[in-house]
Amino acid sequence: MSLDAIRLVALDIDGTLLEPGVDPRDMPGDKMTAAIQRMQERGIIVVLASGRMYPGTVSVAKHLNIDQPLICQQGASLHNRNGSLRYGFSIDKKIAVELVDYAMRDGWPVAWFDSERYLVTRACDEADFFAKASGISMEIHREPHRSGVVPTGIDIISNKERASAIHAEISTRYPEQLHVLNFPSVTAVHAVGASKGKALEKLAQDLGIRRTEVLAIGDSVNDVSMLMWAGHSAAPGHCDEFARNSAKEILKGEGCLLYTSPSPRDGLLSRMPSSA
Question: Which pTM was predicted?
Answer without folding.
Answer: 0.89
